[in-house]
Amino acid sequence: MPPARDGGFSFVGMVVGVMTLLKIKDKYDQYKQTxxxxxxxxxxxxxxxxxxxxxxxxxxxxxxxxxxxxxMRRPKKKGGCCMCCGIDxxxxxxxxxxxxxxxxxxxxxxxxxxxxxxxxxxxxGMPEFGTSLGCSDAPYIYNGTEQTFMIPIAxxxxxxxxxxxxxxxxxxxxxxxxxxxxxxxKYTMTLRSTSEALLKRVHFAYPETDSSGTVTRSRLIVxxxxxxxxxxxxxxxxxxxxxxxxxxxxIHIQARSLAHVSFAPGTTASSLxxxxxxxxxxxxxxxxxPSASVVARAQRLDVYRGYVVGEATIVEELDIExxxxxxxxxxxxxPAAPTDPEHPKTVILRTASGGGRSDFAYLGSKAFTRxxxxxxxxxxxxDMYLRYSGADVNGKVQLVSKSFTLxxxxxxxxxxxxxxxxxWTHFVGNKDGGDEIRVDSRxxxxxxx
Length: 449
Known about the structure:
This protein is α/β, with parallel strands linked by helices. It has four helices and 30 strands.
């Protein structure tokens, strides 16, 4: 479908307009010249003075002065310099020259402006972390002060736990390392609202235990009221910090309402085998900020709507998912140093995009080499940018995309046009290298090596 016209002036229209103005100016100049010549060519009828009559003895008879003053010759109009088939085209080419000069100035200015403007990233409308949520000055606080919860770990479930915020409360969740000798998960929480009555409707669900008192399910659920109907004019906000003990192996942080999630500076979460963060709310103000300092062996970051923006480190596996909605992802990813430099493990990267733009940049390291197995999918028509130019990739590529831009890769025999006729379509560097990049998109893909 051709793009809609912007309603501006066309080149031909501008030429016609300028020709019209030049024609009017030419006629006006001719009119002024003719008027000036008419003034100079008038005949002066002068009567002789009384002194002349008496001195000449003319008997008082006045003679009419019929001398015609010499006037300037009317200059001939110069012939046109551009004649075509007997037609003077001078005016036309003057108009073309003027329009070309104007267009050159206009588009030159636009080119300079474009060169000085940063390329769009999809993050132009991203809200400010924390402060954009509002409700930070709500006067009523749950129990009048910050709350602290100590949650034991479920040893039977592989030392796992879960945190879940439900209902209508919005807020921030900060993930941090706990004390070196901690054995329980510590939560500090400030819960506030513009309605004191709403705070009385907040409920908590704690770990489940068996008859012997052993924890069978480690969890903390914060159940807040939905702000609908008569409560729609109120607000409720939570600000939570989660301290992860070194004995914890797996945790799932979940928010079912608007949330901003981040990691405290220097947080490593190095004891975790798996870190999962899921933002379920269909709210484009959601924000998840991953951190390069976090070195959990496996991470899965899932946002339905909103933003995933930051840096992440792959120890073994990293999953970034936005395919259930239209969240926007912009993440720089780097491999962690191998625990066994002699036999480094291959890192696994999986991204699944939905209706929002995705921008993933993979950055290698000069200090060590680790192979990568990456799979990028886009189930809808959003753009996906995959930047591997910062890494030394050696291996095969499978590119299946509705449309794409590809740089730095060469086509393999049996694969062309982004349609796989076999397992692989392209290769980068050494095609027998251990890297594998698979891309499957229903939209446009930019793949850069």
